[in-house]
Amino acid sequence: MIIDHDNHRVLEVLESREKAAVLAYLLQAKQTGLLANVEEVTIDMWDGYESAAREAFGLDVKVTIDRFHVMKNFQECLTAARRELQRKLTDQEREELKGSRWLWVTNWENLTAEKQQKLTALKQRFPELGKLADQREALRALFNDTSIRDPEEGRRRLLAWMEQAKKLGLSALNKFFKTLTNWIDRIANYFHSRSSNGRTEGYNHGLRAILWRAYGMTNFANFRLRVLHCFGDASA
Length: 236
Description:
There is one protein chain. With 236 residues, the chain is mainly alpha-helical. The chain folds into two domains: 2-66 and 196-231, no CATH class; 67-183. Helix content is 64%, strand content 6%. It is built from twelve helices and four strands. The protein has a two-stranded antiparallel ribbon with strand order 1-2. The chain has a two-stranded parallel ribbon with strand order 3-4. A hairpin with a 4-residue loop joins strand 1 and strand 2 (9-12). Helix 1 packs parallel to helix 2 (47-57) and helix 11 packs across helix 12. The chain is globular.
């Protein structure tokens, strides 16, 4: 799905996410003038998307990794890291943690006062798990910090966060550290204009709603037209 974030609309739905299909569309849209003045592209962490964007719009186009995909990637490693810590606990301690999973993965501001108190107590009872949860909140706070005004400063802050998180000594986080290192420049580009694919996730929900209402659609051409009618330019 190709999104125009400036005008809040779906530009196109492609049948394939392969680089060749994405590049063909981008080149055609650039030639027709629809995407003639692209300055920034937001993507998830797949080399094919970045390669297609640079081939279509030139090496100077700013490619930004969506912050929500970064947090999703970290969340997956966080779950593995929490299990790594829990394996070191006694049976009684693990019993105390039963039913608390959502407390550890829910954003603090989305917890009720009662649940916040419960999580605070758990973090005091299990300090290593508490430190892990604090690193998650620190990464979220970093992306939300409006005082970070450019990619270079964002890059420095992300690397500093990673050094702190490494001190936890959890092997389950190594995969995320490698991902962050490999994509650091494109992730730090977020701090240039704070572009993200958050709106794309909303459109994805809308696409799923179309499929639900139709009890599935086997004809891609019809599905594409339905999506463009609902979320794009009706003349597309």
